[in-house]
Amino acid sequence: MNGKWTHWWCMLGWLLLATPSFAQTKGCHLIAHLNESPVQVKQAGLTLPRWYDLHHRLLTLLTDKAHCQLTVVGSPWPRSLALLERGEIHLMLTMSYTKQREQFADFIGPHYMEESVLVLDKHYAPQIKGIRDILRLPGSIGVLRDAYYGEEFASLLQDPQFNSRLQFAGSLTQKLNMLQRGRVIGMVEDKTQYKEWSHTYPDLAKRYVPVLTLYRNPVYIVASRKGVSEELRQRLRQAWQQLYGSPEHLAILQEFGWSLQ
Q: What angle do CA 79, 96, 190 make, to 5 degrees?
């Protein structure tokens, strides 16, 4: 190869390495959590919720914008919180803000307004006027372990009597299993997710209805402080700021029938 071609090949190699979409993707590989396992959902005889694909698409949108490769894993919510804190996974979604979580999670940006509702057997709906009325019910309520449903609910968890009325699960699939098997007479669920599974399981929708809003707040995409460098976290934050409300973002939400509100 003559000197002229050697020069051009060297220039081409330098340009490829200097291009962010090449250099950063090669050196940036992020592992993200989704709170379902397709294998476990299938084993339970249930249908993988549509929001699983929605969240997968949002994560891909973010990591592509930040020029990173993405691997998505499914694991129970409590386990993923622990993995994020240790830096063994890098990204999670639908995280409510708390001061405790901020110690190990960098809140990159909001992606959804979550409304946690008490979904209950309609025969017991008249008994419920507030969260404390759960104590009056003749059965247990399914909740996601280590989830945050607002200050009042968090305070009530310290009451052994209230705590004993709850059945803790690691995922939506487990909560639905408990509902189908009659182990609980209701569950705390995001209102949009309730609408999703009520379409998928009309028999459950005939019996269980939302009776009370427990908490409404924005939920966030978060990055592990221990597992993701400050520089990369800033890059993710800037990427999400550019994407939030963009045509690409809104198109994905519209495809699944969701909105920013």
A: 90
